[in-house]
Design brief:
The chain has 136 residues and is of the alpha+beta class. The chain has one domain (2-117). It contains 4 helices and 4 strands, in the order αααβββαβ. A 4-stranded antiparallel β-sheet has the order 3-2-1-4. It is globular and about 45 Å long. The two termini are 26 Å apart. Mean pLDDT is 78; it is low at 124-136.
Length: 136
Amino acid sequence: MLPLTILGLRLMGFQRCHRLCRRWAQPGASPSPRDGELERVQDTDRLVRWAAGTGPYRNSCLARALIVWSLLRREGIETRLRLGVRKQRERFQAHAWIEYQGQAVNQDRLAQHSYVPFEQTFPLPDGLERGPWAAS
């Protein structure tokens, strides 16, 4: 799934790739937290990070976060895909991470506090697919 997501992001851009992942990852059973759900979120994130570190392809935090979000959504686990920015040493930097119940998952807890997240979280509500931020 990682190579396809990376390729999709490069060829189609974020909006279209996100839309495809959202269609593939139709929500499962329950939007309310269940026993062991936090562990499942952390395990999924850890497995995707491991896969990203073993492949011959160059991946990004956006591709990893999009895959984790899709896999968890498919299991009915509600998470948020967050995008944030910062300026460090005169360089603009961006980062993507997953939040579960308002907290960044695993290693991205530091990112949650060092990047300024966009107010808009993902998935976008129905009807807001297009906006001034969307590419034409």
